[in-house]
Amino acid sequence: MRAMLFTIVYYMLSVLYVLVSVPFLILPGRGPVSVIIRSYTRAMNWNLRIVAGIRKEVRGQENLPEGAFVIGAKHQSWGDGYLIYPEVKSLSFVTGDHLEKFPLVGGILRKLGAIVIDTCGGGERKAASLREGMEVARKEGRRVLIYPEGHLAPVGYYFRYKPGIWHMAQAMQVPVVPVATNIGVFWSQQEKEKRPGKAVIEFLEPIPYDLPKDEFMNRLTEVVEARTAELVAEATGATVTPAILIPDPPKGMEAKPTPNNLAAYGKP
User: Would you say the pTM of this structure is higher than 0.85?
Assistant: First the structure.
């Protein structure tokens, strides 16, 4: 019942805020639409708290630098973006162009300054769309949210962190703020079920952009996964258990590993 009610409110809020945003798409600048979408994410935080019973706690805000930076976040749930977005001003994000299939959403993404990756144009086009988006973000001094695993990871597992985040930080010449979370304990991946509890997002100490690629990627992976494991243990009352590396799932599918078969993907 809780999950059904959350889903109803989720879609009602999403449709309402999209419709409210539309008249402002023709105006110059990002201001009005940014205010509306920030209000939308706060409303979704309210939906999580009141309807789903998922309280939010934010830690490590003192680790957010002044000016532009990149956020490299753990991605356990559709809900983690809603937790992060209202906490960081002037935030853009990296997303695939699959979101543009929803009516009016493409225009809102462009107005927000989202870096929309062309997933249908091959590797060369993907790289070009990322470069173009980064250049705009750098010039405007914006912050950029990216999920370096590239997939929704089930709790207790992680995917190889992709070096695109290192290239992004190098191109923009800005630090990367790692983010750990345990929201997957309460809202896992795209599941409808919600479990009441306290979801934590924690901004960790920034990583300099000018480190060698391998050192940077190892450090990012280690700090995010180690702290995420601690937050998961905090939420579940279990002992801290390191996450298990699993291969990327086939395109369009979620990772659903089992203890006996770590490559057992696909929706049940």
Answer: yes
Residue from 149, 96, 88 nearest 119 by CA: 96
**Is the Cα torsion angle 244, 250, 261, 236 positive or negative in sign?**
positive
The conformation of residue 61, written as its DSSP 8-state character, comes to: G
Rounded Cα distance, 221 and 51, in Å: 33
The span from the CA of 72 to the CA of 94, in Å, is 11
Calculate the alpha carbon distances from 179 to 128, 202, 247 in Å.
Answer: 26, 6, 22
Reported as a pLDDT band with limits 50, 70 and 90, residue 210 is very high
The CB-side HSE value for 192 (13 A sphere, CA atoms) comes to 10
How many whole angstroms separate alpha carbon 80 and alpha carbon 145?
11
Residue % of the chain over a pLDDT of 70: 84
Q: What does residue 51 show for φ and ψ, rounded to 5 degrees?
A: -90, -50
* Beta carbons of 72 and 177 less than 8 angstroms apart: yes
